[in-house]
Write a structure and sequence with these properties.
The strands form 3 sheets. The chain has a 5-stranded mixed sheet. It has a 4-stranded mixed sheet with strand order 2-1-3-11. A two-stranded antiparallel ribbon has the order 6-7. By secondary structure, the chain is α/β, with parallel strands linked by helices. Helices cover about 35% and strands about 10% of the residues. The protein folds into 2 domains: about 20-190 and about 355-415, D-Maltodextrin-Binding Protein, domain 2 (3-Layer(aba) Sandwich), CATH 3.40.190.10; about 190-355 and about 430-495, 3-Layer(aba) Sandwich (D-Maltodextrin-Binding Protein, domain 2). Helix 3 links the parallel strand 1 (about 60-65) and strand 2. About 50% of the residues are buried. It is globular.
Length: about 500
């Protein structure tokens, strides 16, 4: 499971090997958030140890076909530039290439999964790894073009560098065609959390300590709504909250609605005994309860839908994904990070989810099997050679890329204290991955458009009854799409996903 060790206000720089220390200048170990703080136990230690025998890979070129990402290039760096993430990528690749006698090559595409679809169907080799968004990747899996990595002896999904929440939530019937873990930062970039402007909060009540409220289990939907309502200001005195002229209590785009539902620890789908997902005939009562509790917050007249809201000082709270922390600079305000609020104080943990259109994973095409040099390196075929490399690549990423990523986020936002690190860990550690929503079977990614046609949040027409009826109206199509996926038949229907 992804984990993060809270160490100091910089969360460590780069670690492990002396060669990396020279390249990146820092020392410690870390991993992504996704579980408890690492303890000094035998179990925790062994989960962070690479068990594979080091192999000479004979100069093999491992080729990635990857979808471009303007915010996060976690695959390739041409040189050391002083940018922490870039330099960590450079250091990781250089270390692996040197120690394993191989070469890492990256080919970029606007949509890697779509561009390789026809060649893979024709049985052609295109790359050892496809790195792309999960929705397009799972279409390839539904066409039986990807290898089930759960069958490989070289990949141990119990290790700390694999994201257990994502693997558990997005595998189909125990089969893992797309992998998630420390080899990519895009899942953490896509994770929802909240930012808070402490300057505006202090104007209302300078005695509030939200970090302590999180620790005490008191950061709930009702508490957030109370503060959202009381920190909005009609700055121009016209009696309305308008655009950039006033201060809003809360800012979030419509896609955030589902993140708040997931933060209540609920899912639309269930698993059957075989590990497959299924949809109940009606919305689960827990989902309806969460949606009803969220209505005052999500439909608040003090809510703004403008991604500039926090950086420009337009609101007190801003729910967004971590990507915005990396892509925007320090605003000059006293900004903090918070987890999404819990349903109530009885809920033990904070949960979150991801922006599914932005999360990416790695997959190994079946056409990799025919690599001519695999036998010479001790592998049964090219797929197993690729699995071996993916395990190595993920292990080094845990120790090198992840600390640099968190460090860069904190510096970008001007958040350089241990409390910010603590809150970020809490905010992103418990991710919920509901594939029926994430892969949008039958239009089940529906929380951003429930209500009257043409109306999006904020809007007073979002209610308990609309969610139930919308779910039921889409259930047949969702079940059909899900069944088609599970059985690998009627692949043309996947185009609607």
């Amino acid at each position: 499971m992804k984990k993060i060790r809270i160490v100091s206000f910089l969360l460590a720089m780069i670690l492990l090997c002396s060669g990396l220390l020279v390249a990146c200048g820092g020392e410690d170990e870390g991993g992504k958030a996704g579980g408890d703080v690492i303890l000094n136990t035998k179990e925790a230690d062994t989960s962070k140890i690479l068990d594979l025998e080091k192999k000479d890979l004979g100069g093999h070129e491992f080729r990635f076909l990857a979808t471009k990402d303007d915010v996060a290039n976690d695959l390739m760096a041409e040189a050391v530039t002083g940018d922490k993430l870039n330099d960590a990528v450079f250091a990781r690749n250089a270390q692996i290439e040197k120690e394993y006698n191989c070469k890492i090559i990256v080919d970029w595409a606007n949509d890697a999964a779509t561009s390789c679809r026809e060649p893979l169907m024709a049985g052609e080799y295109v790359a050892d790894f496809i790195y792309a968004g999960i929705r397009s990747m799972h279409k390839l899996a539904g066409m039986n073009l990807l290898y089930d990595t759960s069958k490989s002896e070289y990949i141990n999904f119990e290790k700390a560098w694999w994201d257990q929440a994502a693997l558990d939530g997005l595998n189909i019937g125990g089969r893992i065609f797309v992998t998630y873990g420390d080899a990519t930062i895009r899942d953490d970039l896509a994770t929802f959390l909240s930012r808070v402007n402490f300057d505006f909060l202090s104007e209302y009540d300078d005695s509030i300590d939200l970090y302590q409220e999180v620790r005490d289990g008191k950061w709930t939907i009702d508490r957030m709504y109370e503060l959202v309502s009381n920190t909005a200001k009609d700055l121009n005195g016209d009696g309305f909250l308008i655009g950039t002229e006033d201060r809003f209590g809360y800012n979030a785009e419509p896609a955030v609605n589902y993140a708040h539902v997931a933060a209540c620890g609920v899912t639309l789908s269930d698993r059957d005994d075989a590990g497959n997902f299924e949809l109940p005939a009606q919305v689960k009562p827990a989902v309806l309860d969460a949606w009803a509790a969220l209505k005052p917050l999500l439909t608040s007249p003090t809510r703004l839908n403008d991604w500039r809201g926090l950086a420009d000082g337009l609101c007190t709270f801003y729910t967004c994904n971590t990507r915005s922390l990396l892509s925007t600079m320090d605003s000059g305000y006293d900004i903090g990070v918070l987890p999404l609020p819990k349903l109530n104080e009885d809920q033990k943990e904070h949960y979150t989810t991801v922006y599914f259109s932005q999360i990416s994973g790695f997959a190994i095409p079946n056409t990799v099997a025919n690599a001519e040099d695999a036998a010479a390196h001790g592998f049964t075929d090219g797929i197993q050679q690729a699995c071996y490399f993916l395990e190595v690549f993920s292990y080094y990423s845990m120790n090198i890329i992840t600390p640099a990523f968190f460090d860069q986020v904190l510096i970008k936002q001007g958040m350089r204290n241990s409390e910010s690190i603590e809150m970020m860990e809490i905010a992103i550690k418990n991710k919920i991955f509901d594939p029926v929503v994430g892969l949008n079977f039958g239009g089940m990614y529906m929380f951003n458009d429930i209500g009257s046609p043409g109306k999006r949040v904020p809007g007073s027409d979002i209610n308990y009854e609309t969610l139930a009826s919308t779910y039921e109206s889409r259930l047949t199509a969702a079940r059909k799409a899900l069944q088609n996926y599970l059985t690998f038949v009627n692949t043309e229907s996947l185009d609607a996903i």
